């Protein structure tokens, strides 16, 4: 019988990475000097996460997706995505500003890279005082004006910046120009894609004195030049309830803020579920008493064939509950114990 999977993280050294993955999340990434990301649920080719618990330990996510198919994914998701696991979960630590970038949508990514597009959401876990991020434009833009600002190195004049705090959420659809700012640690839920068009990198040089590649022409066809009245995602943080945060064609994410045992019945949900722990620690009970322990900076993949699970928090815990709902009428039952 399938069971909830924990994975060994994939560590990514980045020019802008820092130490919070070690100091805040407790992950030892030696010998990397500056770990910018850990991928905790990934089926991306070459970056597959490996199971660390249970009888399937040692197998990676791509391998179990190929073998267990709809039992793992859900029937409708397997029919749509085949043996490709459609969601990627990361934790990102920005000790310096990330490059300003944009991601293509499904159509453009398929045409150019034979890949899914890259829509994502950010949940801010920790932010230094005054930390900011970039998301979208301040006003509607056109290609010519945008390119002029890019050439004049005044791109920041037309981009929207937000000061961020713990608990803030930003939904970043494919096409939206964005960048995580210095001093931000966040959890990212995204489509399973590693396609990024780098627009501007502050003329930074790596340890060998080289600047990083920019993708000016490729980005032009991907950018949404429209400005929007709100960029931060509004949601209600309700204790011991399921609080919807993001509903999209690519993934749904709820927040579970718990200080008491809480059960969810996924029997009717034709989807895998990923729990991403962003605060505290808890035990996840399944299969009539078996359990797996989760803490801040970890995630667990719950197969589609799993029915009822119960979360037993150690104090207060916050969990991002992510799944795909190709049938919008499906209801997930929950109850406090």
Structure in a nutshell:
With 337 residues, the protein is mainly β.
Shape: globular
**Main beta-sheet annotation:** 6 strands, antiparallel
Structural class: mainly beta
Query: So what's the CATH class of the largest domain?
Result: Mainly Beta
- Helix-strand pattern: EEHEEHHEEHEEHEEEEEHEEEEEEEEEE
Number of helices: 6
Poorly predicted runs of 5 or more residues: none
Overall CATH architecture of the largest domain: Sandwich
Q: If you compute it from the alpha carbons, what radius of gyration comes out, rounded to the nearest whole angstrom?
A: 20 Å
Here the CATH topology of the largest domain equals: Jelly Rolls
Number of domains: 2
What percent of the residues sit in helical stretches (DSSP H or I)? 10-25%
Beta-strand percentage? 35-45%
CATH superfamily label of the largest domain: Jelly Rolls
């Amino acid at each position: 019988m399938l069971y909830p999977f924990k994975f060994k993280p994939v560590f990514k050294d980045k020019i802008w990475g820092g130490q919070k993955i070690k100091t805040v999340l407790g992950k030892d990434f030696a010998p990397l000097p500056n770990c910018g990301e850990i991928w905790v649920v990934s089926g991306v080719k070459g970056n597959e996460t490996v199971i660390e618990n249970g009888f399937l330990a040692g197998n990676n996510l791509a391998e179990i997706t190929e073998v267990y198919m709809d039992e793992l994914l859900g029937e409708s998701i397997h029919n749509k995505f085949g043996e490709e696991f459609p969601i990627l979960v990361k934790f990102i630590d920005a000790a310096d500003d990330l490059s300003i970038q944009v991601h293509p949508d499904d159509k453009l990514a398929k045409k150019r890279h034979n890949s899914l597009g890259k829509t994502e959401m950010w949940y801010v876990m920790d932010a230094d005082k005054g930390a900011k991020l970039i998301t979208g434009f301040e006003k509607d833009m056109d290609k010519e004006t945008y390119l002029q600002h890019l050439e004049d190195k005044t791109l920041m004049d037309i981009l929207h910046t937000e000061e961020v705090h713990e608990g803030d959420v930003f939904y970043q659809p494919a096409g939206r120009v964005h960048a995580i700012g210095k001093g931000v640690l966040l959890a990212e839920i995204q489509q399973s894609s590693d396609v990024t068009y780098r627009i501007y990198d502050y003329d930074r040089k790596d340890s060998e004195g080289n600047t990083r590649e920019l993708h000016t022409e490729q980005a032009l066809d991907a950018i949404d030049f429209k400005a929007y009245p709100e960029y931060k995602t509004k949601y209600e943080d309700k204790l011991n309830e399921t609080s919807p945060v993001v509903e999209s064609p690519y993934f749904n994410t709820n927040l579970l803020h718990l200080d008491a045992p809480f059960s969810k019945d996924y029997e009717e949900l034709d989807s895998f579920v990923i729990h991403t722990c962003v605060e505290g620690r808890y035990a996840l009970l399944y299969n009539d008493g078996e359990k797996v322990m989760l803490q801040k900076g970890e995630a667990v993949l719950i197969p589609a064939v799993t029915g009822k699970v119960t979360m037993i928090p150690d104090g207060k815990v916050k969990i991002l509950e992510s799944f795909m709902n190709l049938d919008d009428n499906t209801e997930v039952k929950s109850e406090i114990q």
